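Data deposition worksheet. Section B asks for the primary sequence of the deposited chain exactly as it was used as input, without tags or linkers unless they were present during the calculation. Section C holds the resulting structure in token form. Section D is free text for depositor observations; keep each observation to a single sentence. Incomplete worksheets are returned to the depositor.
Section A, Depositor: J.P.
Section B:
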Amino acid sequence: MLKPRTESVNMLVSGLRQLIDTLTMVVSLTFLGLICLCWTVVALPMLLLLPARLGQRCGRLGILGGFRLYIWSLRLMGAYRFDVRELRALRDGPPVILAPNHPSLIDAMLIIAHEPRVACVMKSALMNNVFLGAGARLARYIRHDPPRRMIHGAIAELDRGGIVLLFPEGTRTTRSPVNALQSGVGIIAKGAGVPVQTLIIETDSPCLSKGWPLFKPPALPITYRVRLGRRFDPPSDVRRFTAELDQYYRQELADAPQRQWLEARSPPGSSAAVP
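Section C:
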């Protein structure tokens, strides 16, 4: 008699937990949308009225503040457990290219929220997005295409003492442990003569990964860790550097928690090293 009753209670608890997780994600994403829209309303007139240098500073501080508020809200709601303490070491450092792996949409927000000098390389579609476009243009973030213009813009930013955030995979990770890397990081590092600081991102949830429906409820809380990886010197051979970077990511992410859900999605043989 007790077994059916116990199963009913467990099903009820599970259903309630799923409902709470769903509401938490809906509220958190709605809050992010409101933060971005409010900043768009402020950023648009600033984009038209402020000189470039002042606008850039205001734009980056505004984005940093908005993302910090969002991350604080995720902690408050119990949606995420973040370990990003190592990012503090980046403050007041020399010009550098930040090169993280990219499991989720939230990766860039976490990094930008810890360093006001970051110029993010963004896809052009996002630069024209109603939620992000005005703020990104005010902050003088760098368009991902055309590639030659992106490379020149990133080198100019580094020459001014800035920090460039560029995901070597080019998009969110779909293969275990990383996608094939693009050569842009090495080309920029060589042209600017600056090092590449790798960031290793580990997460136990596929939430907001490539192909994840925006409002699909994940199991909460989500564990997220960002740690400093190896700092590579400016390369002389871009192709060799890209291969070395690829191998380094594969070694560092060999036991990362995201391997479990990435391998469940990846086609056979897709985790093999890129030649």
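Section D:
The longest strand covers residues 222-232.
The beta strands are 80-83, 96-100, 118-122, 142-143, 163-165, 196-203, 222-232.
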